[in-house]
Amino acid sequence: MKLREMVLCALFIALVAVGAFIRIPVGTDVYTLQFLFTLLAGLLLGARLGAVAVGVYVLMGLVGIPVFASGGGPSYILQPTFGYLVGFVCQAYLTGAVARAGAGEPTFRRVLGACLVGMAIVYLLGISYCYIVSHYVVDAPITLWLALWYCGILQVVPDFLLCLAAAFIGVRCRKAGLWL
Q1: C-alpha–C-alpha distance, residues 63 and 148, integer Å
Q2: What average pLDDT does this structure show over 20-49?
Q3: Of 32-36, 135-139, 166-170, which range is least confident?
Q4: Could you tell me if 130 and 85 are in contact, meaning their C-beta atoms sit under 8 angstroms apart?
Q5: CB-based contacts of 31: which residues, under 8 Å, 6+ apart?
Q6: Residue 105 has what pLDDT?
Q7: Residue 44 has what pLDDT?
Q8: How many CA atoms lie less than 13 Å away from 95 in the CB half-sphere?
Q9: How far is residue 141's CA from residue 161's CA, in Å, rounded to a whole number?
Q10: Are 64 and 73 spatial neighbours (Cβ–Cβ below 8 Å)?
Q11: What is the Rg, in whole angstroms, of the alpha carbon atoms belonging to the chain?
Q12: How high is the mean pLDDT of the chain?
């Protein structure tokens, strides 16, 4: 890894950590900017470095540094929301790969599509993990429908808006020559 790549990965690790603590209340829900910064990590750093940055962020939280929205430590693996963190790593990789796939300059449409693919993988891993852990680990069973409702359907609009913002920022940064 070159020094520039390490510095940019460290920047995105910090942005994702800060994004976990930026709370935006909407009705009874609270949203963070963690998802936005993991999308941007994949877009701006590329598949490999984006996944490395988000993966190091997750590892930092698992060793006990309180960078997650609800703290940190190895016991976080047993929380129903840990699947979203795993999804963020996969999402950063896929978003970076899909945005760069194909010939020519990445268009807004392609970058938005990459962000939506990333959102789908985060939802798939996050909702599945939440459902399984709720049933078999924390003994707080929920129906699949409730898991889909609370962990997915209610989050779609805000996350779609974050995908639009990430795609806009990503394309602007690409035109400015800020993609690795």
Answers
A1: 30
A2: 91
A3: 135-139
A4: no
A5: 23, 24, 25, 155, 158
A6: 86
A7: 97
A8: 34
A9: 31
A10: yes
A11: 16
A12: 93
Map out the domains of the chain with their CATH numbers.
3-175 (1.10.1760.20)
- Tokens describing residue 68: 């997650």
Tokens 């693919």 found at: 117
Q: Which of 55-59, 78-82, 83-87, 123-127 has the lowest mean pLDDT?
A: 78-82
Sign, CA dihedral 68-71-72-75, equals negative
Question: Which residues does 88 contact at the CB level (< 8 Å), separation at least 6?
Answer: 16, 34, 35, 38, 54, 57, 58, 122
Cα–Cα distance for residue pair 174/152, rounded to 1 Å: 30
Mean pLDDT is lowest, of 15-29, 79-93, 106-120, 161-175, for 15-29
- 3-state helix/strand/coil string of the chain: CCHHHHHHHHHHHHHHHHHHHCEEEECCEEEECHHHHHHHHHHHHCHHHHHHHHHHHHHHHHCCCCCECCECCHHHHHCCCHHHHHHHHHHHHHHHHHHHCCCCCCCHHHHHHHHHHHHHHHHHHHHHHHHHHHHHCCCCCCCHHHHHHHHCHHHHHHHHHHHHHHHHHHHHHHHCCCCC
